[in-house]
Q: What sequence folds into this?
């Protein structure tokens, strides 16, 4: 047996040269964004177009329809933002951990257990004063999210146990435990599939624009996004996150708190994912059912990678995927188009978001040339 | 009762063993294959379609295997040539391939989820006369399909090949230290792609065992996370063929036991289904802690 290889950060932070002028830097940044985000999205659209054309659909017409279904009217925009909310949470969670070079895929599990906990507590909030009736379920969701991440976090920080596989395994463990506990304790009578009771009315997160489904959950998600940006940019521990993420050995040698960073990165991702699940339960579905998370944890990973951890990029990416999800659900009604098209696009984006688009030989030659200069 | 349990436990192990052996080979070459689920599903679908078109199970299995080998190779190329992170590429590949299969089923075949194919030939059951009625022994060796016997041959064969052949040694060298292997002139990327191709092919045969083995149809949920259980198995078996296969048999028996206990009542299927994953966390924790205690302090 070989030693377990350490996973490096999925993408390295691009170097910036402070000597460049602001305009030049902005241009370079735009070019990079196009390369990092535009190329994966472009490839995904081409792959989707090939699948569409192969099944006798006109790709351009379908994409046009998707766009108008996503942003055509205020009510469609509202639906898009409602679909954006859960994946904005999971994207922030993933970005938070990945920035520290910690490679969790367990946000999905935190999201699911957070949602279940919030739904169960929320159903018992009858007669509880208004603000507390929302905060208590959300607090429960937060604790649940952290608990899901706790074992992998401790194993990683203290003994260096590979977090990727443990967090992946915990997703399945959580799915099993959640399914079992619903059937054993929280099953609502008269429901065919396993589902909990609806949360009481005063525990629901109110809608932002009433007939639409976008709730205050979006506001919480945006606050967390801002918090993430501030954390990474302006705090000491945020600096340590970035340092550990880009150069773990160097950071340890410099006396940075590597263990603390690893622990906080994993627990924090679980915490944010848990709140996301809670907000999803209280704000949109109002209960926990089987299939509560439509792979939101994994979509969040795709968004975080696509945005290269940039807060504005995360927001744009979440809206993009939210639009796809919202439009995909209704486009089905007009043209006979299976929703799985969204999965194809999302999966392709994920694959190519981490790909390095330089021919290896070319890159080597370039590196050699650079060495020659110096 | 015990005969039925043994027989169904072994039957349920076959897809796992095939997929896990594939994953183990890829792992030995240095790639953690998260995409086993997608390869299995591809194999199950193409196996069913080809078997339906030709009315021949062997051609069906071959077709499924080739389709899975292709997906395994493509996924490996994305990891080795485009330097994509193996975990993300694997997860994304799973989502994209499973989405594509679901999409094509609905748009191309007009069915939602389950594809029934006329003229599909299922895997034959090989009944060994004389032994068949012997208790326990009969359940162990008789009434099995060809893929079961493939597993029986494959486990020692792979163990021997990894230990003794040039390919096996080079594969292990690639996984142990890519830099050293490259400096010795090995084509590490090519070796990895080859391992990916084999992983896809074997996992796809596991899928074939599902679609052509027990039920004789294709369902887009038929793998039901078996690709991840296989992942758990080769972690459990530390990528060695025999322990990996034994882990699969253990998980297969859990599965059979769970089905049986469910009908009798009492145990919850959801809880039992988490056992393989819990086992992997425990194994990783124990080996990780032990490694950390015995070796010199390393930078995390």
A:
């Amino acid at each position: 047996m070989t030693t377990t290889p350490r996973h490096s950060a999925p993408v390295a932070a691009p170097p910036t040269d402070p000597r460049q002028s602001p305009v030049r830097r902005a241009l370079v940044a735009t070019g990079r964004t196009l390369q990092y985000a535009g190329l994966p999205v472009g490839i995904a659209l081409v792959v989707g177009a090939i699948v569409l054309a192969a099944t006798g659909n006109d790709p351009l017409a379908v994409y046009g329809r998707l766009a108008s279904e996503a942003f055509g009217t205020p009510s469609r925009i509202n639906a898009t933002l409602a679909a954006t909310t859960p994946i904005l949470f999971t994207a922030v969670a993933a970005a938070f951990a990945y920035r520290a070079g910690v490679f969790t895929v367990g946000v999905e599990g935190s999201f699911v257990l957070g949602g279940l906990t919030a739904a169960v507590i929320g159903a018992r909030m009858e007669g509880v004063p208004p603000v507390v009736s929302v905060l208590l379920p959300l607090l429960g969701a937060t604790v649940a999210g952290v608990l899901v991440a706790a074992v992998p976090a401790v194993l990683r920080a203290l003994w260096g146990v590979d977090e990727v596989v443990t967090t992946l395994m915990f997703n399945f463990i959580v799915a099993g435990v959640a399914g079992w506990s619903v059937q054993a304790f929280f099953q609502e009578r008269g429901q065919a599939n396993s589902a909990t009771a609806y949360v009481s009315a005063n525990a629901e997160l109110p809608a932002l624009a009433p007939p639409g489904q976008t709730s205050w959950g979006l506001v919480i998600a945006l606050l967390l996004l801002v918090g993430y940006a501030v954390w990474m940019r302006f705090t000491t521990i945020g600096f340590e996150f970035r340092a550990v993420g880009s150069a773990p050995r160097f950071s340890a040698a410099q006396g940075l708190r590597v263990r603390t960073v690893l622990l906080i990165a994993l627990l924090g991702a679980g915490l944010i994912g848990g709140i996301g699940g809670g907000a999803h339960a209280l704000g949109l579905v109002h209960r926990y059912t089987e299939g509560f998370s439509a792979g939101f944890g994994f979509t969040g990973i795709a968004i975080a990678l696509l945005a290269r951890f940039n807060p504005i990029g995360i927001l744009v990416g979440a809206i993009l995927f939210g639009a796809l999800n919202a439009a995909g659900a209704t486009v089905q009604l007009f043209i006979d188009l299976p929703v799985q098209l969204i999965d194809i696009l999302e999966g392709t984006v994920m694959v190519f978001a981490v790909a390095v688009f330089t021919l290896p030989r070319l890159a080597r030659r370039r590196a050699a040339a650079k060495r020659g200069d110096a | 009762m015990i005969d039925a349990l043994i027989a169904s436990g072994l039957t349920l192990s076959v897809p796992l063993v095939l997929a896990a052996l594939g994953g183990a080979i890829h792992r030995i070459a240095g790639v953690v294959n998260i995409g086993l689920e997608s390869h299995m599903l591809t194999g199950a679908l193409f196996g069913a379609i080809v078997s339906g078109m030709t009315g021949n199970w062997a051609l069906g299995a071959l077709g499924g295997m080739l389709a899975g080998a292709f997906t395994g190779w493509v996924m490996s190329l994305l990891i080795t040539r485009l330097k994509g992170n193996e975990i993300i590429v694997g997860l994304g590949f799973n989502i994209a391939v499973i989405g594509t299969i679901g999409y094509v089923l609905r748009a191309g075949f007009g069915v939602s989820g389950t594809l029934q194919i006329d003229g599909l030939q299922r895997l034959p059951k090989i009944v060994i006369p004389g032994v068949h009625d012997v208790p326990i022994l009969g359940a162990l060796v008789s009434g099995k399909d060809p893929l079961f016997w493939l597993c029986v041959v494959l486990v020692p064969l792979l163990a021997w090949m990894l230990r003794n052949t040039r390919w096996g040694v080079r594969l292990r060298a690639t996984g142990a230290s890519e830099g050293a292997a490259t400096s010795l002139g090995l084509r590490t990327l090519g070796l990895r792609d080859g391992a990916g191709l084999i992983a896809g092919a074997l996992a796809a045969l596991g899928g074939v065992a599902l679609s052509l083995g027990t039920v004789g149809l294709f369902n887009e949920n038929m793998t039901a996370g078996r690709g991840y259980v296989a992942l758990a198995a080769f972690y459990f078996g530390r990528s060695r063929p025999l322990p990996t296969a034994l882990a699969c048999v253990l998980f297969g028996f859990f599965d059979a036991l769970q089905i049986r206990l469910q009908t009798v009542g009492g145990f919850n299927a959801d809880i039992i289904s988490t056992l393989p994953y819990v086992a992997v966390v425990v194994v990783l924790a124990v080996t990780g802690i032990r490694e950390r205690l015995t070796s010199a302090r390393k930078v995390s």
About this structure: Residues 1-6 of chain A have pLDDT under 50 and may be disordered.
